[in-house]
Amino acid sequence: MQHVVFNQKGGVGKSTITCNLAAISASQGLRTLVIDLDSQGNSSRYLLGDGQTHELPNAAEFFEQVLKFSYREKPAGDYIVNTRWDGLDLMPSHPLLDELHGKLESRHKIYKLRDALAQLAADYDQIYIDTPPALNFYTRCALIAAQGCLIPFDCDDFSRRALYTLLENVTEIKADHNAALQIEGIIVNQFQPRAKLPQRLVQELIDEGLPVLQPYLSSSVKIRESHEQSLPMIFLEPRHKLTQEFVALHDALR
Fold it and tell me: Which of 10, 106, 127, 130 has its CA 20 to 30 A from that of 43?
């Protein structure tokens, strides 16, 4: 299964959700890949730490190659690295993704990621794609390539207003380019059950018939420690409440 994690609003937890769901997949024995298409590289740092990730094979090198026609293109697997956890691999991000964006868009390379995932389908049970906070070339690539779309929602009125446009954009891409694409659901992130605004916003989404997933992900300072140590929650503190919410969410998606 190929999941793209997407929201046009920044700061909603895309990379956190991507990496934690992927880490749980790997911990359950599933061959799992994360593809980091956000030039900020948060997923890459989360899984690899703050070392010299820019020197590793990466997504920018993959896209740079597709701009250069060759009869002997490297397979997509050559741009993937192992993480320290068994069964969890990564195609890292790179700042060069920003520079390549215009060239890729003008050369109509929008289907190349879909072709790459077709090559990798036999090697991975689960693929998670982290996307930039914008509906740009890389996000469209991911939505065209993936089977499912997960939408983080951080219980904010601005997020709610942006959500309707996002759903329309995903539906349009499904109609025009990827009939197999499904909106798997809205992931409620940083939920505070005692606060009235988050409760009201989430209930309104449910009342409108939108696919809000259970369980909601709690707000916790532990996630900051997880980021700082480059340890997804399942490896940092598997019994923590937030970890168990991630596990339940992961299992609900299978």
Answer: 106
